Structures are given as C-alpha cells and as structure tokens.
Amino acid sequence: MRTSADQIAHLAAVVIIFTLALVAGERLFASEPVRVNERMQNLISEIERDTRETRPYTGRSRLQASVLKAMRDVDRSRFVPEDSVLYAWENRPLGIGYGQTISQPFIVALMTDLLDLEPQFRVLEIGTGSGYQAAVLATLAKDVRTIEIVPELAASAAERLAELGFANVEVRAGDGWHGWPEAAPFDAIIVTAVSETIPPKLLEQLAIGGRMVIPIGPEHGSQNLTVVEKTTDGIKQREVLPVQFVPFTRSDTRPEQ
Ligand code: SAH
User: Fold this and answer.
1) Residues taking part in catalysis
2) Ligand 1 centroid from CA 128, angstroms
3) Which residue, 114, 125, 156, 121, is CA-closest to 142?
4) Which atom of ligand 1 is nearest the CA belonging to 127?
5) From atom 10 of ligand 1, which residue's Cα is the shortest distance away?
6) Long-range pairs of 63-70 with CB within 8 A, sequence gap ≥ 24
7) Distance between CA atoms of 197 and 106, rounded to whole angstroms?
C-alpha cells in the first residue's frame, strides 16, 4: 500500500509541475506581443517627442499620420542583426556590419516626412544598408529603387525585403553617385550617407517639383540634413537639422567621370 501512496504522491507532483510549467509558458508567450506593442508605442512616443523638440529647426511639430503608421507597420527588428533584436525598438542607430549603421528611427521618420510622399510617387534611395528605410518608403510610395555600395549589404537587404513581401522595392549594388538613370525621373530622392556636395547626377534625375533629402557636410564635422527642391525656377535648398551620418563613399570605378 505504501508504494501506491508514494506513486499517487509522485503522480500528483508531476501533474502539478506540468500544470505550473504550462501556465508559466503560456504567460511567457502571451506577454511577448504585449511587450512588443508596448515597446513600439514607447518608440512612437519618443519619435513624437523628438519631433516637437526639433521643431525650431525643422518647422514641423508633428509628423504626418501616414508616416507614423508606416513606422508602426514596418518591424525594425527584422532589419537588425540577431544580437541587436532587443534594441530594435530603441530610438538609436545600430550597427549592421561593414562599419555601417541602420539610422535612428526618429531620423528615418523625419527624412520620410520631409519627402512629403504621395502614393503614386517613384522614389530613389542611396544607401540601402539594412533595407529598413526602403521598407518604410515602400509602404508610402508606389515604387522604390535603392542603391547600396557594399555588395553584401545589397544582397542581404534584397533578400530580406523580398522575404517580407516588399514587392515594390528594387535593390541594386553599386555606387549611388550615378543614380539610376534608366528609372529617372524620380519624384523623391533620399540619401542616407553624408556627402560634401549634392551629387549632380541625382539632381538631374529628380523630377521638376520633386524633393531630395540629403545630409550635407564633411565626414567628421558639422553636417546638416538638407531639403533640396527642384522647381521650374531652379534649385531651392534649406538646411533642416544638424545630424551625424556615415560617409558617402565612392567606388574606384567611375564609369561616367
Ligand atoms: N538606409 C539604411 C541606413 C544606411 S547607412 C537603413 O535603413 O538601414 C548608409 C549606407 O550608405 C551604408 O550602408 C553605406 O554602405 C551606403 N553607402 C555609402 N556610400 C554609398 C554610395 N556611394 N552608393 C551607395 N551606397 C552608399
């Protein structure tokens, strides 16, 4: 009889432990999406706060609702290296290898906002990096072409974007200095690496009435996010915000110069 009492006690213990594990496991799984939503909400709040605080520079106290929605809809954690996933919802740049970075979410949101995108727009990005900015653009515009000078980054971004279903983005490996002449003109051009001057080919490939958002300045020194507008009367340029970007590098092969 003793044995069977022991057995029952043992069985009861197993059942209790199993139930506890099940409950704990369920909690863990159930809480994960909540935490992600919470982190995303915090990030959006930080973007909104940065927007208000930089208003004296940018002239914009709030971003377009469509831009904030795109920031919510594109999962940044899919664009950062595996060991940085925990930081994906933080408002800061992160390393993506090859000495390059995925920009701070506020800067991605601000640059997107400054482009004043419309659903029928065709957009060119220079500096694909992880593909995150391209994904945000692709949720707001018709067609996005993006050029990346580091071939490995171009390949992994193309693969990632295809996997995530961004069918309206085309990635090209190469030096963005030359733009994408076959697909020009573009309604909007965004450059995510800092250049001393506006690359002339990009200006040529911008449609009349179109806008370019580009950081301008020296690699180590004062850089300014700049909005360039191409009008029938010529080029209008205004500095929007002091920034810090990785350099616009040049390939050794310069086919057109
Ligand atoms: N937009 C990216 C962040 C890019 S960081 C993202 O969302 O992740 C800037 C990128 O510009 C880097 O990947 C760098 O390799 C690339 N780059 C620098 N010079 C370039 C050039 N001449 N042509 C194309 N890409 C360039």
Assistant:
1) 103
2) 5
3) 121
4) 11
5) 127
6) 63/109, 63/110, 63/113, 64/113, 64/116, 66/117, 66/140, 67/109, 67/112, 67/113, 67/140, 68/44, 68/109, 70/112, 70/136, 70/139, 70/140
7) 24
Domains in the chain (CATH in brackets) are: 48-243 (3.40.50.150)
Pocket of ligand 1 (CB under 6 A): 100-103, 126-127, 129-130, 132-133, 147-150, 153, 175-177, 192-193, 246, 248-250
Average pLDDT of the residues in 26-51: 82
| C-alpha count within 13 angstroms, C-beta hemisphere, residue 75 | 13
Assigned token pair, 185: 């003109």
Cis preceding-peptide flag for 93 (omega within 30 of 0): no
Between CA 162 and CA 164 the distance in angstroms is 5
Encode pLDDT of 96-121 as tens digits.
Answer: 999 999 999 999 999 999 999 999 99
Q: Rounded distance, CA 247 to CA 218, Å? A: 8
Residue type present at position 204: E
